[in-house]
Fold:
Amino acid sequence: MPSLIPPPPGPFLSDAYYQTGTADPRLRHDPGAGAWRSKPATAGTVAQLAAIRSILGVPTMVYPGTNATKHMEHYLNNTGRDYVIDLEDMIASVPTAKRAMIAEFRQAQNFITALPNGTHYFTSRAGESAYNYKGESADWFFAIGGYTYWGKGVAKVSAGTRGRLFEVDFEYHVYDRYNWDGGKKVTIGGIEVTDEFMGEFHRQGLAKEFDCHGKIARRFTWEGAATPGEQAILKKPGR
Structure:
């Protein structure tokens, strides 16, 4: 398979979606709830936070899914640290997420098949957007919602017995900023929780927005026109 050691610099190549290189595309996110700890904490908001914490702490309470619960707990822990999401589960659970990953690999595949023989590092020219809809998965709707995705990796292209041989290590990346900026609401243990409600915790310094990252890796080998099928793209290694 392709070496993880970068090859000597070669010619810069690109198409509409991909280019040679290793840099990730520039990422952006919406303003969220505003500046952290930009308002004084109030007794009422502190009490609301305590109520939600007590509900989330009940073993039988999984709002409204395992990942949504974990992401909210990380928000309420108030560290602001980056969080690694279970991207394999998101891809397995959400039809839109499946389609996004397949489309991203097909873009990479089209770029790779046009490359000359040799070892090439490749990366998306820009991130694209997708959304986990509530009707597909309430868990991932509340855990992530909208996100940015892109691909990158390394490809070794050589002469094969039935056309050119392609050996590819492909990475699929996802980014989202976990924030509360309007439009969502959910009832947790009898308490209606809205974006404004949750955003107030951030503004009062009682919770903190954070960056979510996810990455999954796939290894593909094909010759000529015999490219990987959709199930091969989606299949988790070892399954």
Observations:
- Residues 18-23+32-233 form one domain.
- Helices lie at 43-56, 66-76, 87-93, 95-113, 138-143, 195-203, 230-234.
